[in-house]
């Protein structure tokens, strides 16, 4: 009998030690033996706790920098639209930056500048300058809070927002924006911006809406490229509402019109603002689809044209068209104006959309029946591409 008790004791001790070794190596299983129920329960509980920790971790290595909001806060309430938007735009920024970097010939990388704003929030600005393929590329994320300045309130009221003047209106704004100025004149410039906005009214009610768009500015017209670009954006829109693309294409043509030149900045794309229907979730899913359409709409054009031959005439035309780009951004663009009006604005990030080089010539007109003239005809008479 004593021998049997001794054998059972040795078996139980051996099982317990085995359990400890398995637990230390993060192995999970059943532990068999007399009196080991408590040890088994502890092992399963430990496994569950470790799994929960893993689920709570945010893999920030997939971003260009740490998010503006603390990772633990972002993961505590995944259903909060502020948090969902921040995670989405951080992903879009990183995916687009890495796609652009992969096209450079000599491994040029983005300079990453994470910044904070004393009034609330901050951003991550990524800029690549003097690359072989991209002369200047900027991809910016901002997540900011504060009180709306009077000029911004007036601008929003002019768009139909029911905002009271001369009172404190706390706001939250987050978005991703990019402008890519390539070196080769046969590669078009692309711009996109997707954003989410909240304003708290004096009675505590919140107004929210989404806005954004993607548009293309070629220096030489390639109709195949134009159709590919518009078709890709239309597919993203059609996933959600078949009326979106025609509505937002026209909105884009109207918005990116340089009035004093009587010409468009480019060949359009989609543009929309104040989207707050049918639900917050569906609106978020729509702009996510649009943001994810940027890479397939644009990168094939870069790959197609980045090695095209060009000379000084093409370069000078490119610089003239970039001058038009500057005129629109500084005179008409609402996003630029809102940024400049906002207290604590970070001007380097706001003005990252401007090209590294641009040119103005007095009373310049391209030669009739030239490739430059063909582009100008389309810019003065926007057309349907699909």
TrEMBL record:
Pathway(s) per entry: Porphyrin-containing compound metabolism; protoporphyrin-IX biosynthesis; protoporphyrinogen-IX from coproporphyrinogen-III (O2 route): step 1/1
Top-level taxon of origin: Eukaryota
SUPFAM superfamilies: Coproporphyrinogen III oxidase (SSF102886)
GO cellular component term of the entry, any: cytoplasm
Database matches in PROSITE patterns: COPROGEN_OXIDASE
EC number(s) given by UniProt: 1.3.3.3
Pfam families: Coprogen_oxidas
Broad class of enzyme this protein falls into: oxidoreductase
GO MF annotation terms: coproporphyrinogen oxidase activity
Gene3D superfamilies, per database record: Coproporphyrinogen III oxidase, aerobic
Keyword tags: Heme biosynthesis, Oxidoreductase, Porphyrin biosynthesis
InterPro entries registered for this protein in UniProt: Coprogen_oxidase_aer (IPR001260), Coprogen_oxidase_aer_sf (IPR036406), Coprogen_oxidase_CS (IPR018375)
Record family assignment: Belongs to the aerobic coproporphyrinogen-III oxidase family.
The name this protein goes by in its record: coproporphyrinogen oxidase
Organism of derivation: Drosophila grimshawi
Taxonomic lineage: Eukaryota, Metazoa, Ecdysozoa, Arthropoda, Hexapoda
